[in-house]
Amino acid sequence: xxxxxxxxxxxxxxxxASMFALGAVVSPRVGGFLRDDTLEQLDELAESRRQALLWIxxxxxxxxxxxxxxxxxxxxxxxxxxxxxxxxxxxVQMILGNAMGAAGTVALLRVHDLDGALVAAVSSGPTAxxxxxxxxxSPLPPSxxxxxxxxxxxxxxxxxxxxxxxxxxxxxxxxxxxxxxxRELLELAATYNGLGETGETLVFxxxxxxxxxxxxxxxxxxxxxxxxxxxxxxxxxxxxFGGESTPVADGVxxxxxxPVWAATRFVPETGWGLVVKLDAAEQERRYVEFRDWLxxxxxxxxxxxxxxxxxxxxxxxxxxxxxxQAANRIRGGDMQxxxxxxxxxxxxxxxxxxxxxxxxxxxRVTLLREFRKxxxxxxxxxxxxxxxxxxxxxxxxxxxxxxWTEEExxxxxxxxxxxxxxxxxxxxxxxKLAGGVPTISFENRYLCKDGSYRVLRWTSYPESGVxxxxxxxxxxxxxA
Length: 480
Known about the structure:
The chain has 480 residues and is α+β, with helices and mostly antiparallel strands. The protein is built from 10 helices and 14 strands.
């Protein structure tokens, strides 16, 4: 595998590993962020819905108080109490009718005397019903409007009852009961902004049997008059009635038996519970969608990483690959091969140094060729030997004069070719050379292959254990 392939694989592997590591770290952290963010939004929505409920209740209370504080109503009720005047009763009835017309959400108005007996009543239409419970406490605290309960009319819509004292000149004269068609409450519950595809707001109260029941139709069903909520462990009703306000994402189920994420509130003055919730499955789907998006993004980025790794691998490896090709060409004998210098970085510096070494190598090779030429064509006997007593190289004149091939000369110690009578002095001369003393003129007899001897005069120079020597024949061949 060449360096280009290795570098490409390395870059791609690092990129892919980084992507997967990023996914492994980011995915759960984002899941936690989504969870925390959703619960925080639910908590904020629950608080805003509670404030909206209080605002609606405040509006009903203000309308009830405004009607109860009507001077004509108070004066007429006092006159009727004192005199039993039918005209006063008609005036009270007319005032209630006018108030009914002015307050659009009022479904029923009733006035009771101090004994709780019904004095006068008006309703918004034949569908309005009288509350079945006793909602005329008497006497009420002065200037106080109290919540008196909630019931459902024939269509299943909630009707909220408030009661207020009626006083004249500081003395209680009766009680006003106002029943409101809670359209604002229905509109609040039907607002799903910020609640996704499954979320909803539930407003509920315990019915006569103590069962928590919503005051409105739910998003997931067409129940009239609301639905009963489970009140077992983990139920939303228990959390709300218990005053729990911390949003939860585990172990909570709604009226369908579905796991939900929820935030709860409690409205003490009415005993209503409030829940803002989302299906856990929808939230998990958001996480799965994000995870799938992250995986798709990682795949796309991985593809880009592979492409970038391939391009960068080629970009970084090509100069080195070209350098390797130039080295192979030089090894093959092409001394003209050079590396291409592509920049001023480390690779460019390497290419310049490589080219410099090749220039020097080419010069040395030229010198070596010239030396070999000179060595081979010289008529003098030339050799390179070692102080170990062996030839390392001989020229053609050496081989022709003595008749031995170079292989034969290199295979044996050169003392084997020295005349026995000259061996001792030759050993002494070699010892001097080994000590670094050059030989200027030294004679000995060398054995020819035909058995005769030739007298040779040597000049030799030692360097680092290598002997460079030149010899000339100074006599005719002599017999052995």
